[in-house]
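In response to the reviewer comment on reproducibility (Comment 2.3), we provide here a single inverse folding case reported in full, input and output, so that an independent group could reproduce the run without further information from us. The structure tokens appear first.
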């Protein structure tokens, strides 16, 4: 029997290295610090870490502005530290993927510096230049709160350069074969070192063509297929995870015919989980899964509730966006671009029942889930911090100095400790010792999720349960079936499901339920969830 590929049943965990653990005492988390905390991650049960960028960078976009693709930012450590991290992770059966920012570099990158200084430099054509700022009018602006145009005048170059994100992030010109070669070299560099793959940043925007919106162009797919082929031929088993904040029908081509990405984030599902929970109605989730085309057997969605960016509302209608802002971002400071800059627990009013429910949905929907660091202990956020920094604060390890994150007098961002998110409750050590804590609940969910291949590989079938307030579906794979019930509402709900089978066991709490005459009748408490095997 074929064993499914590892990433189909893996639990991912996103790490912001600066926030995780400071081993050097300079107030910034680093690679050695992360290495020291691998036992915690192994204990939590995660299979693969995604590291936000750790490259040398002026940090105008927290490392998504790369100044050297083959190095490590000095505040994070050295290449040797990175290698030791990989070895230590692999020894614990934890894989590591890193961010690969293909679309742009920092304006401090030597390529850009050479390009702007000399029109005849071979590097000039590494970027996209124009004498005017009126080309590619069809391309939207992504960072609407800060950028007025995708063109910025460079007085040194005497031309405008193209950028889809901050003006400190000039876009690379993939029409230039030399740029494609450079990126293949970068990929080899890290895969040779032992990295297990990449989360590829901002892939829809790699090419520009007049008369289009400059997203998802055929040329982009040709390039990505080339990268995939290169990896398959030279580094089989390593993966590519696609960041394309697009509708499922637009993301589908990024899986190709199993010859492009292994995985892709499911962006439109995420806000609908929050909509369904607020409305007590499964319809938004059901609708978006119906819009989701099937994908090749060896590929997988990557599902998430939160990440290091704002909770993006790009993939909802204007009306739903206003509704989400009203419900989830009542204070205008909570809003950023087309999204909401808050963490999971604050979004859900720190209501333990809803936090668990959201995770129940995350872990039981098709796809491999990714947990954002700190959400497993219900960390709060800080809307007073600039940009997306409010959701990137230090990991809270214990009730000690700087929450056990660092012994420096000054740290890169304050720890969250307030009347709602009290440090004495929201920290790893306290929750580790408490079987009823969110951390231990997450641990149990992750263990159950990994034990049941169905959740990673099975198909999903919606069950008619008599009420839209309950998201009821079965997941089945080979000879295993799970029936998942999520009460999305704040009231008790009785469900009645016509079903084959007799005895159903909740895999998390070990409670048993019996079907009578082919009907499974269960009463669910507000926001209660059950993962039933049978
Ligand atoms: C997506 C990343 O998640 C985000 O943090 C970054 O600002 C942009 N891409 C630009 O690289």
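Designed residues, in position order:
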């Amino acid at each position: 029997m074929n064993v499914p590929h590892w990433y189909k049943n893996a639990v991912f965990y996103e790490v912001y290295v600066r926030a995780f653990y400071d081993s050097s005492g300079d107030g910034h988390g680093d690679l050695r610090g992360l290495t020291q905390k691998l036992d915690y991650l192994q204990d939590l049960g995660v299979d693969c870490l995604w590291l936000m960028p750790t490259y040398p960078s002026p940090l105008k976009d927290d490392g998504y502005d790369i100044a050297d693709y083959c190095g490590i930012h000095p505040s994070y450590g050295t290449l040797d530290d990175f290698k030791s991290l990989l070895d230590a992770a692999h020894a614990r059966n934890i894989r590591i993927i890193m961010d690969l920012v293909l679309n742009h570099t920092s304006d401090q990158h030597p390529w850009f510096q050479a390009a702007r200084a000399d029109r005849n430099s071979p590097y000039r054509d590494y970027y996209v230049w124009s004498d005017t700022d009126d080309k590619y009018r069809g391309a939207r602006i992504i960072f609407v709160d800060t950028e007025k145009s995708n063109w910025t005048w460079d007085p040194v170059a005497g031309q405008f350069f193209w950028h889809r994100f901050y003006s400190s992030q000039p876009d690379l010109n993939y029409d230039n074969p030399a740029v494609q070669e450079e990126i293949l070299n970068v990929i080899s560099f890290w895969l040779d070192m032992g990295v297990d793959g990449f989360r590829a940043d901002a892939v829809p925007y790699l090419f520009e063509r007049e008369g289009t919106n400059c997203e998802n162009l055929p040329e982009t797919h040709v390039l990505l297929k080339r990268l995939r082929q290169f990896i398959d031929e030279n580094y089989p088993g390593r993966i590519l995870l696609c960041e394309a904040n697009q509708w499922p029908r637009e993301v589908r081509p990024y899986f190709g015919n199993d010859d492009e990405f292994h995985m892709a984030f499911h962006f439109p599902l995420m806000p609908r989980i929050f909509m369904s929970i607020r409305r007590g109605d499964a319809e938004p989730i059901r609708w978006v899964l119906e819009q989701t085309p099937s994908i090749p057997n060896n590929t997988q969605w990557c599902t998430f509730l939160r990440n290091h960016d704002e909770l993006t509302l790009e993939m909802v209608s204007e009306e739903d966006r206003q509704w989400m802002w009203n419900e989830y971002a009542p204070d205008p400071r909570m809003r950023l671009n087309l999204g909401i800059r808050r963490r999971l627990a604050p979004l859900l009013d720190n209501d333990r029942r809803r936090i668990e429910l959201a995770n129940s949905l995350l872990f039981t929907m098709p796809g491999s889930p990714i947990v954002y660091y700190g959400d497993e202990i219900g960390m709060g956020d800080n809307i007073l911090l600039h940009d997306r920094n409010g959701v990137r604060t230090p990991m809270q390890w214990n009730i000690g100095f700087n929450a056990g994150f660092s012994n420096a007098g000054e740290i890169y961002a304050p720890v969250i400790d307030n009347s709602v998110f009290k440090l004495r409750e929201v920290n790893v050590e306290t929750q580790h010792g408490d079987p009823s804590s969110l951390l231990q609940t997450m641990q149990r969910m992750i263990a159950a999720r990994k034990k049941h291949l169905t959740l990673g590989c099975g198909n999903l079938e919606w069950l008619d349960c008599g009420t839209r307030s309950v998201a009821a579906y079965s997941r089945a794979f080979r000879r295993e079936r799970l029936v998942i019930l999520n009460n999305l509402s704040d009231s008790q709900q009785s469900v009645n499901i016509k079903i084959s089978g007799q005895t159903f066991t909740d895999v998390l709490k070990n409670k048993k339920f019996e079907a009578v005459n082919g009907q499974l009748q269960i009463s669910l408490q507000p926001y209660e969830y059950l993962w039933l095997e049978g």
